[in-house]
Amino acid sequence: MGSMIEIYTDGACSGNPGKGGWGALLRCDGAEKELSGYEPMTTNNRMEMMGVIKALEALKKPSTATIYSDSQYVIKGMTEWLKGWKAKGWKTASKDPVKNVDLWQQLDALAAKHTLKWQWVKGHNDHPENERVDALARAAIVVGR
């Protein structure tokens, strides 16, 4: 029985679309790992999703984790919308193609390997881990990597 992993993620964009960055913090048994990355032309929602994707890719084996994000888009997508999108062949309720379908499919496949709980946190509200991943995402934009 493995330990519970805490995953905090955030995305940021300078311009939307524009330069983007994502950040993730993984914590297990007191050990922490920080991840971040950059894309030259992207959107805020894509960066929010990339933070979660890269965090899940960093898990070496099937794990139990709680994912904390300030993105309603990511949380509602994974907990409310995904099932319907898949049932409708990746179309929204209004029959439009789901935006960012490439990332949703990646996220769905990664999430299937783990036991995940999705937790929304209010952004920019002095939540220490959320502030850290926000800073990681913003720093990635500044340095461009």
Percentage of residues assigned to helices:
25-40%
Mean pLDDT: 96
Major sheet details = 5 strands, mixed
Morphology call: globular
Class by alpha and beta content: alpha/beta
**SSE ordering:** EEEHEHHEH
Number of helices: 4
For the secondary structure, the number of strands is 5
What is the radius of gyration? 15 Å
Quick rundown:
39% of the residues lie in helices and 31% in strands. It has helices at residues 44-57, 72-87, 101-111, 128-143, and strands at residues 5-14, 18-28, 31-42, 64-69, 115-120.
Kindly describe this structure.
The chain is of the alpha/beta class. Helix content is 39%, strand content 31%. The chain is built from four helices and five strands, in the order βββαβααβα. A five-stranded mixed beta sheet has the order 3-2-1-4-5.
List keywords for this structure.
globular, alpha/beta, 145 residues, 4 helices, 5 strands
